[in-house]
Amino acid sequence: MQTQQKGALWVFTAYVLWGFMPIYWKSLHHVSSGEILVNRIIWAFLLTVLALLLMGQGGKLVNDLKELWRTQKQFWSLCAASFLVTINWFTYIWSVNHDFIVQASLGYYINPLVSVLLGIIFLKEALNRNQKAAFLLAAVGVTILTIHYGVFPWISFVLAITFALYGLIKKHIKVDATRGLAIETAFTVPIALIAYGWIFSTGDAVIMDTNPLTVVLLILTGIATALPLVFFAKGVPSIPLYVTGFLQYIAPTMMLIIGVLIYGESFGKFEWLSFAFIWIALLVFTVPEVLRYVRNKRMMVRIDKHESSHQS
């Protein structure tokens, strides 16, 4: 199998795993979102560090920490990223277990558009005509949903903004995905342990008074967190950006289908209308980028052939 095909398969698998996540969190609906979150942080840290030690990467992990500490800006940027992704995790878990899967899927649909907006604000990037049209269409879709719900879809925007900011920070920090996850969770583990201590002190900790399956599922939140991230990191360097752009819509589409068909969340004519605007916005946003990439690729091939013919 060619490198690009393998890469696409790894990334596809990552997004499918993320797409099935609502079913996993729903299986823990009897556990509070806070307790699920602290388990996710603690077990992701422990299992990731254990995996690194078994792979003989303990030294590399220490070197990464030293290197980050030498460049204080990167160290504290990664710390900020870890707290942003923690907010994202909590919001997602809470939304799934309070029957807001559809609104959560909306958050991950609009995430690419928010990322572009952050690029304009922080990286001084300019919007082209297609991107402006995509933003306008998405804004109409969100407005329809806001009027229909009677409240602003804050869950969608917390998920979209926190993950977009996380991605923006991570873009400038070059750390291996698995070691990066270990370092990120290390920042939040102390707070998670304190929070778990408080949950125990109030007598609300489910893990000590529940069935074995729940205990196993709570422990496996670490693997559920790390595995798709590792698959994604393994595949994304070897595939074109436009392929990643298309594949990223797998997860929210699966979330939407799961929310409506399995858990019976509402998806009436206003939701259809709103999401239609957002889906069209994503097409307007993504398709021109794909066509531009293909044109540039063909041009590069022609240039290479032309240079090769001259050399021969």
Automatic annotation (TrEMBL):
InterPro entries per the UniProt record, alphabetical: EamA_dom, EmrE-like, RarD
Organism expressing this protein natively: Sporosarcina jeotgali
Signal peptide range: none
Stretches that traverse the bilayer: 7-25, 37-55, 75-94, 100-123, 130-147, 153-169, 181-201, 213-232, 239-263, 275-294
UniProt KW Transmembrane helix keyword: yes
Membrane topology (UniProt): Multi-pass membrane protein
Top-rank lineage group of the source organism: Bacteria
The protein's name: EamA family transporter RarD
Domain spans labelled EamA: 6-146
Keyword Transport: yes
Listed Pfam families: EamA (PF00892)
Gene name of the encoded protein: rarD
Family label: Belongs to the EamA transporter family.
Compartments it resides in: Cell membrane
Alphabetically ordered keywords of this record: Cell membrane, Membrane, Transmembrane, Transmembrane helix, Transport
Main subcellular location of this protein, as a coarse class: membrane
